[in-house]
Specification:
By secondary structure, this protein is α/β, with parallel strands linked by helices. Helices cover 53% and strands 9% of the residues. It catalyses: D-gluconate + ATP = 6-phospho-D-gluconate + ADP + H(+); 6-phospho-D-gluconate + NADP(+) = D-ribulose 5-phosphate + CO2 + NADPH.
Length: 627
């Protein structure tokens, strides 16, 4: 990774000497910041007057522009006093992640004597005290004692800057391994860690490194202390371990070895509430914590996933080049990775992503069941899905077509799979979050409960004998009817998912950008689709996709088909909970006068909960003695 190395410190500390020697050793360009002072600054300092902040502003901006220009070509070294934190902020503006600080540290007497020995320098020794008074020692820096010889300083700096790994990956499960290879393929020097368990997990990292040529420059560890010490500071460590208490155990194992301003990234499917708690806890330790949803499965992690990081913005800037480089790219070549927002917002939208994914999978399962009832075999169903790609394409549609084509021993594999659907918790969390925020994510709940029902295999077999299929009609449907019903339900699904994100943004003051979230979901992730690409532009004008004229027309076009499909399935005892809920939800959300008046009357009758009246605009609560 290209980087600009600022060698900083008070005048006389040896910045120019060390900077030149280091540039020669690293074979990168060297620039002396003093050469870029305007004439007015040089004249002022030569007359014995210290510069003020107004004098420095333009000079610092010039050096920042120089650094940016050089980074387009190569790494470079710039020497500059950079005595205050705000000066360093100007120097590193927009290039924080590519900036390294080398602070040459010495005491006043030591440097005073050096300054007095110099000739033809415009900084008189009388100004040295003002520099020490101004100095705010940098926390995020490589600090070097100037009492060392120049040779020792260069050797130390080279080791700290070049020999250590840029990024650490903790946990080498399926996703962790794929992300390691992705990072290495993109030119990053990484350190990899996997625990050692006698007889169970032995030399996992070393064996993994030996298996793939792209990992030849990576470092492999099963000792935490060695792993952490192999990383450049501030350390950037991505945790790819199981969500829940395991994350907390790993954090406690790492903490004794970390330093202030190190950054931990949780790339698992953690609950957003727990992520917020970890952000707050680690802040007390001086450690940054980033909750990053990662979607794309094993292939996505290797070739480019969608990444949803959240937490401290400044900490994100330090890991931004790594995450954005390994992320998938959208149709415009932009990374499918963006800073989502504060706290656990990244894990929240990953949770909702998975909830929407539950529905998309359920809908495809339902339409496949309907197509089977029409007499299509798995090859026919795959062919039907192929024809749908021109109008309703998605990653899940593509892989489901592949699934229906796969054969084993002259029979379709899908027919041999036990019909029990598992889940890892994100669907549960999305449903609970919907209830807590008061958002009717009914399709997500329906898809989740469909999985629960599937798990009762033995009871389903028993009850199927008690309640025989009572169908008395033919399934009067076309594949176009089914396609339009499917497209209808997908629009409702995406409406509900983004409605939940919007409500969370308002409730938790996250200020989430729905268009940008849709954009990073257009590639790399499981729910990428043509519809998602349309939503990128739609969300630039509204937070409610059902107010968009194009989608209004489509919903009205598809509505007769979904009603026909759902009613035909009910008459033929075919289970379509997600398709059915889609039309029921639209009926409910578009009903100007709902049956809730009866509910309120009932609540007032048995519990005196009161109600409001249509003929009273004051908002006053009313109570009636109903009996």
């Amino acid at each position: 990774m290209k980087q600009v190395i600022f060698v900083i410190g008070v005048s006389g500390c040896g910045k120019s000497t060390i900077g030149k020697l280091l540039a020669e050793e690293l074979k990168i360009p060297f620039f002396d910041g003093d050469d870029f002072h305007p004439k007015a600054n040089i004249k002022k300092m030569s007359s014995g007057l210290p510069l003020n902040d107004d004098d420095r502003q333009g000079w610092l901006e010039t050096l920042n522009a120089l650094a940016k220009k050089q980074l387009t070509k190569n790494s470079c070294i710039i020497v500059c006093s950079a005595l205050k934190e705000k000066y360093r902020d100007i120097l590193s503006l927009d290039i924080e992640a590519e900036t390294k600080w080398v602070y040459l540290r010495g005491d006043f007497n030591q440097i005073y004597n050096r300054v007095n020995r110099r000739r033809n320098h415009f900084m008189p020794s009388e100004l040295l005290k003002s520099q020490f008074d101004t100095l705010e020692e940098p926390k995020k820096s490589i600090q070097i004692n100037i009492s060392l010889t120049p040779e020792s300083i260069i050797k130390t700096l080279k080791h700290k800057l070049m020999d250590k790994s840029e990024f650490g990956l903790f946990g080498l499960g399926v996703m962790g391994k794929s992300l390691c290879r992705n990072l290495a393929n993109n030119g990053f020097k990484i350190a990899m860690f996997n625990r050692h368990v006698d007889g169970v997990e032995v030399d996992i990292a070393k064996d993994f490194k030996a298996k793939f040529p792209e990992l030849s420059q990576s470092e492999a560890f099963d000792d935490i202390a060695d792993f952490v010490s192999a990383l450049q500071q501030p350390r950037r460590i991505m945790l790819m371990v199981n969500a829940g208490k395991t994350i907390d155990y790993v954090i406690e194992d790492l903490l004794p070895h970390l330093s202030e301003n190190d950054i931990l990234i949780d790339g698992g499917n953690s609950n957003y509430v727990n992520t917020k708690e970890r952000v707050d806890y680690l802040k007390t330790k001086g450690i940054h914590f980033i909750g990053a949803g990662v979607s794309g499965g094993e292939e996505g992690a290797l070739k480019g996933p969608s990444i949803m990081p959240s937490g401290d913005l400044e900490a994100y800037k330090s890991v931004q080049p790594f995450l954005e480089e390994i992320a998938a790219k959208d149709k415009n070549g932009l990374p499918c990775c963006t800073y989502v927002g504060p706290e656990g917002s990244g894990h929240f939208i990953k949770m909702v992503h998975n909830g929407v994914e539950y529905v998309e999978m359920q809908l495809l399962a339902e339409v496949a069941t309907i197509l089977e009832a029409l007499g299509q075999n798995p090859d026919d169903i795959a062919n039907t899905f192929e024809t749908w790609k021109s109008t309703a394409n998605s990653y899940l549609l593509e892989i489901t077509a592949d699934i229906f084509r796969k054969k084993e021993d002259d029979d379709w594999l899908v027919n041999k799979i036990l019909d029990k659907a598992g889940n890892k918790g994100t669907g549960n969390w999305t449903t609970m979050a919907s209830a807590e925020l008061g958002i009717p994510s009914t399709l997500i709940a329906s898809a989740l409960f469909s999985r629960y029902i599937s798990f009762y295999k033995e009871e389903r077999l028993q009850l199927s004998q008690n309640f025989k299929n009572s169908s008395t009609s033919e399934l009067n449907l076309t594949t176009n009817d089914i396609l339009e019903a499917y497209q209808f339900a997908r629009i409702i699904n995406h409406y509900q998912g983004f409605k939940l994100i919007s409500e969370a943004s308002n409730t938790f003051l996250w200020d989430l950008n729905l268009s940008e979230i849709a954009r990073i979901w257009t590639n790399g992730c499981i729910i990428r689709s043509a519809l998602m690409e349309d939503l990128v532009d739609i969300f630039k004008d509204t937070t409610n996709i059902l107010t968009n004229s194009k989608l209004i027309d489509l919903v009205n076009q598809y509505r007769p088909s979904v009603k026909k499909v759902v009613s035909q399935c009910v008459l033929n005892d075919i289970t379509t909970p997600a398709l059915g809920e889609a039309i029921q939800f639209l009926n409910g959300i578009t009903t100007p006068y709902a049956s809730a008046n009866i509910i309120q009357a009932q609540r007032d009758y048995f519990g005196a909960h009161t109600y409001q009246r249509l003929d009273d605009d004051s908002g006053k609560s009313h109570h009636t003695n109903w009996n």
